[in-house]
Amino acid sequence: MGKVVMYASVSVDGFIADENDQPGPLFDWLVSGDVPLDESGVLKVSQTSYDYVRPYWDQIGVTIAGRHVFDMTDGWDGTPPSGVDHVVVVTHRPEPEGWDPEAPFHFVDGVEAAVAKAQALAGDRIVEVAAGDIGGQALAAGLVEEVRMDVVPVVFGSGKRYFGSVHAQHLLEDPDEVIQGNRVLHLRFRVRRRPS
């Protein structure tokens, strides 16, 4: 099965959005370079960021997101973001009325069920869990194997936390990667497993 990775861009004080659910400058690094990150030509990053991000994006088979993110993005118009094959949406509500049943979106109740569904769909590819409440729930349940953060030089002071409502301590291993790009610091940590 593919590795489960929690991922997002994050402020230096640990927020993935401000109080109004806006990312503000968190995605500025995605347009701060001259190397196209995808076919759209909109996202352009430094060569260093490209060399780190593109291979990771190419390994993602499924993204897990919460219903709030799904609703905010209008379900990405039925097309998973960043070339991902499937999106698993954690929700207690049914899919939106009029939703195309052929769209590669799967509506699942609960984070454990979402990770199981995502791993079945992803095969040996990465299952990416969006940071925030859903990512925090997956981490607390012991389902996350790796944490990736694109740390952006901004302080929000308050907002939506990277680890959601996690209140217990979770240890990470020493960083596997620390890479400086334009307006971003890419970090990758393995999650330390608790002794059985």
* Low-confidence regions: none
The geometry reads as globular
As laid out across the biggest beta sheet, the strand order is 7-6-5-8-1-9-12-11
Give the helices and strands as they follow along the chain: EEEEHEHEEHEHEEEE
Structural class designation: alpha/beta
Could you tell me the radius of gyration in angstroms? 16 Å
What is the averaged pLDDT score?
94
The CATH architecture classification is 3-Layer(aba) Sandwich
Question: How would a crystallographer describe the biggest sheet?
Answer: 8 strands, mixed
Pfam families: RibD_C
Protein name: Dihydrofolate reductase
Summarize the structure in short.
The protein is an alpha/beta fold.
Description:
It is a single chain. With 196 residues, this protein is α/β, with parallel strands linked by helices. The protein has a single domain (4-190), classed as Dihydrofolate Reductase, subunit A. It has four helices and twelve strands. The strands form three sheets. An eight-stranded mixed beta sheet has the order 7-6-5-8-1-9-12-11, sandwiched between helices. Strand 3 (35-36) and strand 4 form a beta hairpin. The protein is globular and about 40 Å long. The two termini are 21 Å apart.
Question: How would you summarize the topology of this molecule?
Answer:
Blueprint: E1 4-11, E2 15-17, E3 35-36, E4 44-45, H1 47-59, E5 60-66, H2 67-72, E6 86-90, E7 105-108, H3 111-122, E8 126-130, H4 133-140, E9 146-152, E10 160-161, E11 177-181, E12 184-190
Parallel strand pairs: 1-8, 1-9, 5-6, 5-8, 6-7
Antiparallel strand pairs: 2-10, 3-4, 9-12, 11-12
